[in-house]
Amino acid sequence: MFERILFATTASPTCDDAAKVAFELSKKNKSQLSVFHVFGIPTRGFSTFVRDIRTGEIEEPDENYTALVVEEMRHTYEKFLPTYDQIAIEAVTGEPATEILRKARKDDVNMIIMGAHSRAEDIGATRHRAITGSTMQRVARAARCPVLIVSRPCVTCWSYFANIVVGVDFTKASDSAFAFALNVAKEIGCKLHVFHCIDLSTEPALTPPTQGEVEERVAKARKKMEEKYISKMGDFDNYTADIWEGMPYVEILKFAREHKADLIVLAHHTREVDPEQALLGSTVEQVVLRSACPVCSVNHPDKVDVTPYGVRPAGEGE
């Protein structure tokens, strides 16, 4: 599962929780892990500048400075290195989201792992921890592979997950999120909770729906859930299917907390639009910021098969 993983890091403490997941997940799955840091934005003139990751000062990048940054990254993550050797550490100069996506395409990675926030001192990070980082939003929007976003400590390692919650809204993007969540649940052997929230947050305040209208919408949604998702479970029977009503991100978080979710899987946008053009959905953003567990954004059908090695011999990978 996950032959190649890209850990896109700012090489700062804001990515420590994501780093722990990246290294543990790669070690468990014997994945090739790329620790990747984009540390400066070239100017439009004849020179470039970068901001030093430790001092915050402006520096002129060259081969020696890049080597110094890589060495600092190695020092930052040295506690993980003695126990895991399939790792490459790389630092480049450029626009962060562009370089991360280029690296993911070049290496044909199965998953990108990121933190949710930028540092307060980063250029453009004027709303630190009020919104998800702009780089994360751009990567989640355009990545062809799932993007795992870790904003808080993950107390359970991926291989020991007991409950996965996948939020669905019957769109094509949700189909990909569901397929990924189902494949992970089958591979790990944990319970899958398929969840849909009927959005009542946009209903007119003066004419809210009657209880009968809500129950009718629930019945229609349940029929859709059976047709689009439950019918594709095959012989996998370790699942639940639930439909609640309310504000989607609030209900997803409540449901995940009630069912002790180890992972939440969502499509990165909630409307039938071109994924390349869609902004990060407000539901996903709020879930990422408030969730106690990692959130995986899936917006393409690519890389949703998490068993590239086929069925493993008994005992392998344990």
TrEMBL record:
InterPro entries linked to this entry: Rossmann-like_a/b/a_fold, Universal_stress_UspA, UspA
CDD domains: USP-like
UspA domain span: 1-150, 163-295
Protein family per UniProt: Belongs to the universal stress protein A family.
Protein name: UspA domain-containing protein
